[in-house]
Structure formats: structure tokens, C-alpha cells
């Protein structure tokens, strides 16, 4: 079941830039004010550290995000994995949690090439190590 | 935040649960109507009914129909469910006799007021609607008597248990469109709404409420049918066992409040010195429900769950708690206050009254056969009641390997019986033992309102969304494709 919320095309464009052109490191999405579609909240150039991404997530509201995760595989060089985040902190209002949880499918289905999906409710679940472990576990 | 769209009318959200009915307007934070699902019913003659009933019915052509249908429904029930002796006169009644019909008393004060020969019933059995007559009357009561709205003007959003059957859903749609003339309808599953309301499209929802305990996995907003389990060991079952325990250990018959006229102080453990009211012709089901109410209070006041493995000696040294029953009888409750709720975790060991039927996934399971085995868990082919951590673990294990870690780290506890002190700690403790090395995270809605009304609130938010209007089943669609459309549109 889903909420029927739509996805703005700008989201897909931003995702393409991140995936194909590698010009973005992360894109954060949010629901528009009229709660009808998902729009781009912020994005950042490729030279952004992971910590900055985590810092950009609001502590008391929900977001979706994609992050182009780069890591070193010992002896095999660099790898890139795109991770999809559902950020839903415990302190967020229940209305917002509900909206983001029920609309996740809408955006997730439109994004192709996601290697790992992270459902995070606090900063420890979005920590570098946790995400690294998830990203490396997927085989391809 | 309220979102106004041009064509938007506030939807009605109704959640009929095992012990409580919640109803209200979409977009609000708490339901306007919260009444027990236990409904009083008694037989009255048609004249009496029309004279006393306050229900506003559609004045359209069907003004005659409801009564006729009511008669039908009750007649078929009395055939199947072998009415208890107190309903005596009811049995003599010839089937379809036009002179009598059922009158329902809905609402806290209505249903707990003593009336001669008033039965107490609930429309649900294992979460499934078993008595449509009562169910319809509940909707009626919510719309006309309490919310004071015309259902033909507002879309209707209802909730259902995860294991609801397609035919029951179709019946519900028919009720909404044919009887209540709703312009649009949607039905959604409880665990999905609970998961959404705690911000999780994926998670395992353990709902331990009044009449049923269930473990259901939700993935991306859809219920995974695999592994879902439900059994009737929940709040009411615990209360029944407390009743049996009091009888066994203290020879105490619990006297419900309605029978007590006056009580006087007695020492702990001394027989009560209360003046009782004379209440002839009380239906046994009413008396029992009132006893249960007294036990609920007892349960909420003194009962607790051991945070780690149940250890009789360790718990014996914990402080006792005093409790006074409605008739003045009072006692210091020691280790017993841990013993009975322990049934939720070890049903095979702590059940006092073994004559009570235990149902797992709608089928009765035998207790007596298992008591000798000294149940050690896995490997037993015959079905037996499960402890809550086991239900969670089995449900997750039945799902795909890829999904399991997601579910383990998103366990959501909801329902009134999870409010026992120590409950959450215990589930966490036991799961660590069952699934070592797994990252387990248990989530419980923080404030009580969210835990009590979680499902309703989920429905309220979802159906108030402007974008939700494309998901409703409209009356037009229903008329075009029939009731089976619900199984396509509401998944």
C-alpha cells in the first residue's frame, strides 16, 4: 500500500547526475509542502565527505536520500555503491514518519541502480561504519 | 497540518479492534470516539425497539429492511452459537418471528449498565468479523450517534487484521456501499499502518492487544503472508487466568463492581464484608465481562513481567504490592503478579486454568498434550502455543533471508498488553538468546496515545492526504466491478 504521492522529475534528473555523471555526491529528497510530490531538498558536489551528508539530515524530520558511497576494497581498488536512505528519526512528528514511510515505494521504484537500502532512525544507524558494512555485503 | 484541496471532504476513519472501537475524522491526531468493542444486546419486542431506539436510519425505501434483516441475522446466530441459558426466552422464539428483534447497547456506560438478560458480545472472533449484525450497529452508532455525520457524504477508511479473508473484505465493502451509501471506501491492514506510523515501510509488527497477539512482517508497505501468526493468548486470556488463579490460591471469587452496594474495610486476606445488590436474571456473559473489568484494573496495577528469564526465587524477594478488589477484599500480591503474565512468554508452563481453549492461527491447539513433554521448543511437529519472542523469531525466520536482518532491526511492539512493565526488556532479552549475533532493535511508540491509537492515527494521516484520493474505491468503481474490487485495490 502506498500514499499515492508522486515524484517530481527534478528528482530523477538529480539522480542521473549522481549516477551517470558522477557530479554529485548526495541528493536529499523531501516531500513538497502540499504533500503531493517528492522534490529535491539539497544536493552537493562530488567532493563532499560522508559526515557532511549526515549533518545535512534534519534531526527532527524525515527525508529520503541517495548517497554515492565510495570505498576501498582491499587489493582491488575503489568501488562505488549508491545507497538509498530512508531517514526517519524517532523525534520526527508521527505525521511526517507516516508520510515518508508510506511514500517510500514511490521514489524507490523510480531509482534504478541502488546497491543498498538503509532504513535509519538515528545517527548511529546512518554512521559510516554501519553503512560501509551494508554496502560491502552486497556482492556486485 | 491540514491540507485543503478543492474537492476534499474529510474522511471518516473507523478501527474496530478486539477490545476497543476507535472512530473519528481523518487528519486529526486522536479519535473522537473510543468505546469498548463489547456490546450489550438484549431481546426486545419490535414496539419497544422502535420506541427506545435512538438510531437515525435512512428514511429511504429501506426503512423496513433493517428490522427484517436483523431478525434473520439473530435467528441464524442462535442456531449456530448455542446461546447460553440466560438468554432463555430467546431460544423459545420461533425463527424469524417478526415480533422481536435485538437491541444493542454500545458505549462504555451503556454496555456496563446492568440490565436483566443483557448479553455482552463482541462482533469479532480472532480479529475476524463473525457477527455482522453487531458490526453494522457499531458503524451505525459511530456515524449517527457519536460523530453525527452522514456516511453518504464522507469517504470511509477502515482497518482490518492482516489475516482477514477476501470474502469478509467483500462483505465489508458491500456494507459500506449498500447499507451506508459511502461515496468512497478503503480498507487497510493494521500492521502496515502501525509500521508506517512509526516511520518504517519495513518491519516486524508484534501486536499484543486484548483478544489476540499477532506477529506480522511488513515489507515496503505490504504484509508478508509468510510466517504471520496470531493466537488468542493476550490481555483477556491473562485476565481469565488471573481469575482462575485467585480462585485457586485464595478461594476468592471476584465480585464485580455493579453487584457491590457498600463495602467496609477488612484486613488483608480476610473475607470481604460487603453488602451486595440483588441482580436477578443477569446474563452470565455480562457478569463475566464485569469481572474481567475488575481484573483489568488489578492487572494494570500490580502485574509485571520478569525482565530476564523467569526465576521464581529471585522474584519472590521482590516487593509485594497491595490491591483492593471492588468488594473490599484486599491482599498483598507477591510472586503471583509475575506468574500469570509470564504466560505470554511461556504459555506451556504457567496456564492455571487448562480448560480454556488456546487458538493458534484460528485453530485450537491442545495444552494438555504438551504439558507432559515439558516443552523445550523446536522440533515438535504438533502445534502448540508460542511465547511472544518465539512468535517474532518464527515469523522472521519464515521470511526470505535477505529480508531477515531488516526485520530484526525493526521490531515494533504495539497493543495494550505490551504496556506491562518489563515487557520490552524481556522481548529484547529473549530475542538476543534466540538470534545471537543479529542486530536487534525494538521500537515502541513513545507516548501512550500513539500506542493505543497507532493504527487509527495511521489511517487518519494516510486518508487525509490529498494524494490519497486516487486510491479510494469510489462508488462508481464498486458499481462497475462489484465487491471483488477491494481485493485488487486495497492490498
At CATH's second level, what is the architecture of chain A?
A: 3-Layer(aba) Sandwich
Straight-line distance between termini of chain A? 30 Å
CATH superfamily of chain A: Severin
Query: How is the CATH topology of the largest domain in chain B named?
Result: Nucleotidyltransferase, domain 5
Strands of chain B, total number: 22
| CATH class assignment of the largest domain in chain B | Alpha Beta
What structural class do you assign from the helix and strand content of chain A?
Answer: alpha/beta
Q: Can you tell me the overall shape of chain B?
A: globular
Backbone CA Rg of chain A: 15 Å
Output the helix-strand order of chain A.
EHEEHEEHEH
State the assembly state of the protein chains.
Answer: heterodimer
How many individual domains of chain B?
3
The amount of helix of chain A comes to 25-40%
Structure description:
The complex is a heterodimer of chains A (140) and B (491). Chain A has four helices and six strands. With 140 residues, chain A is α/β, with parallel strands linked by helices. Chain A has one domain (6-137): Severin (3-Layer(aba) Sandwich). The N and C termini of chain A lie far apart (30 Å). Chain B has 491 residues and is an alpha+beta fold. Chain B has three domains: 6-198 and 452-489, Nucleotidyltransferase, domain 5, CATH 3.30.420.40; 199-233 and 387-444, ATPase, nucleotide binding domain (Nucleotidyltransferase, domain 5, 2-Layer Sandwich), CATH 3.30.420; 235-346, Actin, Chain A, domain 4 (Alpha-Beta Complex). Chain B is built from 19 helices and 22 strands. Chain B has a six-stranded mixed β-sheet, with helices on both faces. In chain B, a hairpin with a 2-residue loop joins strand 7 and strand 8. Chain B starts with 11 loop residues before the first strand and ends with a helix. The chains are: A alpha/beta (140), B alpha+beta (491). Chain B: Residues 74-83 have a biased composition (Polar residues). Chain B: This is Actin family. Chain B: Belongs to the actin family.
